[in-house]
Amino acid sequence: MEAKTLLQEHIAKTASLTQEEFDYFFSHFKPLSFKKGQTIISEGDKVDCEYFVVSGCLKAFFINDEIKMYILQFAMPTWWTSDYNALYNQTPAQINVDCITDAEVLCLSSSDREKLCAEFHQIEHFFRWRTNKGYIASQKRLLSFMNNNVKTRYEELLALYPQLYNLVPKHLIAAYLGVSRETLSRLHNS
Amino acid sequence: MEAKTLLQEHIAKTASLTQEEFDYFFSHFKPLSFKKGQTIISEGDKVDCEYFVVSGCLKAFFINDEIKMYILQFAMPTWWTSDYNALYNQTPAQINVDCITDAEVLCLSSSDREKLCAEFHQIEHFFRWRTNKGYIASQKRLLSFMNNNVKTRYEELLALYPQLYNLVPKHLIAAYLGVSRETLSRLHNS
Known about the structure:
Two copies of one chain form a homodimer. By secondary structure, chain A is of the alpha+beta class. Chain A contains nine helices and eight strands.
């Protein structure tokens, strides 16, 4: 689907904008294409934008002091991603975002988002709802970390991203769950 | 400080409301008092409200299948808390909220929050900002879980809640960090 149509349908689920208002809103987004493996945000970067995924799949991840990778989020079409702490607090990025597959995204700067929210109540409403969804997803991810029951966590992951098992290399799914590849195969076949 | 003044000063940092608008906004909040140890949300509950802390300290926590308690958040004056997943998705609570000390809170129902956001752009703006802060705090909490460096996590905790070490029993701070009380003493004295 064309990027503009995808974003318009995504917004329309939450906010009522006229075509003219949406055209104006859309004019603030910058389309970007990335190749599989390319990095969008690296730890330490200054972060000015958030990204709406049009096609492909991104991952947001963190590498700890023991060089262990943890995946915070897989971002698929109509998902948004960034390092929101770095974006809002103007601190260096603590996480990385890169492309699991070739990907197209729409990039919105923080200053444009704030301007648009101030100009249109409906756009502020959309971003409240969007942030809310992100907050809830983050809380669920936190609970899944606290929950030692790997089978439950695996089922939650598949409920959240039904197409994931076929789309994403198995070692990344294992890194999301914090388990070995062998444990993942056992969960998948049980 | 009186509950109404505390909320008004809290809101005024982000949103411009006339006194009349704030009075109307405030009329939707219900003041509640709790004793130390009392439960506000239990796992499995239907959740209809979110809570603005006026005085005292609450904790939001999760108990996993191995009966280990994890603390998601300490909520002090001017912090908001609830089980936001349960609140927005109308699912049973997955977490618990109770009172570490005697506490006074202001309770706002989900339906009133949505009504107020629709009525006033400035209130929608406030709640977008508030949710955003919650989202960022949740992301930081998630990163702190992924980070094996306990000393860094302890320093982050004290930066987030400077008065915590004197206010909250040590075993709860240890439960937030996921370490033993002995490790906590060592960190505190190092």
